Amino acid sequence: MRYYLRKFGFYLAALWAAVTLNFFIPRMMPGDPVSILMAKLQQRGGSVNPEARRAYELLLGTDTGEPLTKQYLSYLGNMLHGDFGISVSAYPVPVSEVIATSLPWTVVLVGIATVLSVLVGAGLGMVAGWRRGTWLDSLVPATTVLAAVPYFWLALVLVAVFGSALGWFPLIGGYDVDFTPGWNLDFLGSAIHHGILPALTIVISSVGGWLLGLRNMMVSTLSEDYVLTATAKGLPDRRVMIWYAARNAALPSIAGFAISLGFVVAGSIVTEQVFSYPGIGSKLLEAVQNNDYALMQGIFLVTTVAVLGANLVVDLLYSVIDPRTRAGANA
Questions:
Q1: Which DSSP symbol is given to 136?
Q2: Under DSSP, is residue 94 helix (H, G, I), strand (E, B) or coil?
Q3: pLDDT tens digits for 42-67?
Q4: SS3 86
Q5: Could you give the CA distance from residue 127 to residue 130 in angstroms, rounded to a whole number?
Q6: Nearby residues of 248 by Cβ (< 8 Å), 6 or more positions away
């Protein structure tokens, strides 16, 4: 119980530190989102006077005139109620609504692609480590090269070949504009069709790291006494490979998988930008370009909570999978 309480205490402290930084950093950044909003209004033919500017400053919370301590307490209270402010880049839409509409696209796309890359990479790494020295080892340098290729270059190649030259997949967007978003087969089929190339980009560029990591851990684990004992007892190779070697070799990869799952909500900014995908990564880039501090704060907060939550869950599961962690912590 002390082990679990220490874990919860650590993550609560980390969450408080992240929330506090999320409050102070935008206030120290240069730029003024109100000026950007005023410029947009003037471009549309609207008039701007000092009273209107002051009203927008109060609405967006950029200059309330309150002490910083009171602003911080108000920020914490609003955050607990899910009120992250008004988005400048999508004015007058609230930040929570912008995140709610874009986050599912990213979670589905990046989440499925991440799980696929882990399963494919770990499976290939397990077999390559078990049969080291065979032709399977040739997969390691090939996938490592693909992992070193920049995201945007690989995305552009896939777009040029499969989207432009062959015409198998659409070039941009998350779905066909002729369909109305909803739980119907036409829209879901269009969304899957549009998501194949972005997902393929993430899988190809990520699978090499998982393959190399598990392959090297398998090679180290195969020299352990419990693996040699299981082999000497005459157990089937498949059982020794999965239940004795891979089960222990995969332990260090669990933490990496947790971090990857946590960052799923942050999206893949470059990939989403290349494909004009309506995910959270595109919204974050749009917020940075427009000095939309409220939207940046909301996205950073959601990402932080997701990363900390994923790591906490894996820490708790890790103590169940490998009891040595609890023993070491309580020693």
A1: G
A2: strand
A3: 666 666 666 666 766 666 666 656 67
A4: strand
A5: 5
A6: 221, 224
